[in-house]
Amino acid sequence: MQEDILINWSPQETRVAVVEGGVLQELHVERSLERGLVGNVYLGKVARVLPGMQSAFIDIGLERAAFLHVADVWHAPSEGETLSVARHLASQIPIEKQIFEGQSLVVQVIKDPIGSKGARLSTQISIAGRMLVFLPQDDHIGVSQKIPSEQRDALRKRLQSLVGDEGGGFILRTNAEDASEQALSDDIAYLRKAGKRIRDAATRLPPKSLLHQDLNLLHRVLRDLVGERTHSIWVDSLEQFQLLQTFGSEFMPAAAQKLQHYKGERPIFDLHSVDEDIAKALGRRVDLKSGGYLIVDQTEALTTVDVNTGAFVGARNFDDTIFKTNLEAAQAIARQLRLRNLGGIVVVDFIDMEREEHREAVLSEIRKQLSRDRVKTMCGGFSQLGLVEMTRKRTRESLAHMLCEPCLTCQGKGIVKTARSVAYDIFREILREARQFNPKEFRVVASPKVIELFLDEESQHLAGLSEFIGKPVSLQSESSMGQEQYDIVLL
User: Are the CB atoms for 312 and 321 separated by under 8 Å?
Assistant: First the structure.
């Protein structure tokens, strides 16, 4: 199935929607104020060398000088040396013998500034691509340790043949395990051009200049999202459309040919009800066309998906009803994983099916749908408890974590104590305070619902408490307080 990519751009936020058959499948969001500095390459100027700390402060044009430790000073391996040995030997050479004040140095940010601390730097430059990482100062060909060891040698030889003798090192990332030779060759060409840009900029720009910035979301669309199935890329900003054309024609000409400027009067995301789908993707319940529904719960450790028949009674018998609901749920679950960008462990509780062929058909359907996901996923079979476990690689924050924050009232629990439970907590707290202090009066400040309960159904108990402790208890309603919040003021 072909896909279209819709780009909604504004100065503060870029949103990218991947739509297949008129249905939203993926959403990517980047906000300008939340972009970090990690990956940026600068021509820095050594401001101070601190032999006692074996570190140096480098001025890269930011508010605070950045920090370079001797362990992060790059030393090219000699013939026969491994990378780890070279790094160890470099860290043994005092930093004052490797760099000096006033020196211009090409550096890369490896850790963002935090609080009063400046950014942390390295002199080893690495440029991330879609499937590879380029090391311009090295000639090492590596493969991610997360790829099974039995596959690494074959992948390393394959990459070596594509890299040739032009120089520079490459590391193959996990998502390139099954990549085609054309895709790898395109990534190599893009990374070498980026490396040449950095070298050229370092010779002509003054110190404290930015030489390279990791691609923003707008440019990563061409690098990471465009594939053979991509039919068109619509951009609703003329300025960004022209920038993407320039970038694409230099680095990714095939992808650039699919760019189109959207000139419609309606917002681009209204074309396929994208905003409506985003709102639904932030909820727990996902309704199925048949009348069934999913309940999706995301926790720190894993995500659970519960499948329910709901109002679906359309099939001839109950077994068929269950099977058709599960089949539709399998398609919806694969879409929700992509749309919500849920990573880690996912456990699905399908409705119990008696027949083995039904279970196999449901598994086959969900695996088929997951195969369209650009993020690596693995799906097991049904467990003894009738659950299906799967894993999906974590690539970025989930949609909910990106767009939402925990509720200030329930602190992310999803539930709050009833007004009566809070009222009884207040009774116990007043008793506790009365044993320790001797004020003239206790004043309860709480939410309107709790105060209303004290004035009505719990008024007799409140009067009894006041009589028991021998002190008056006054009430104050505070509309800004959540239901579980309260203060007991001693007057």
Answer: yes
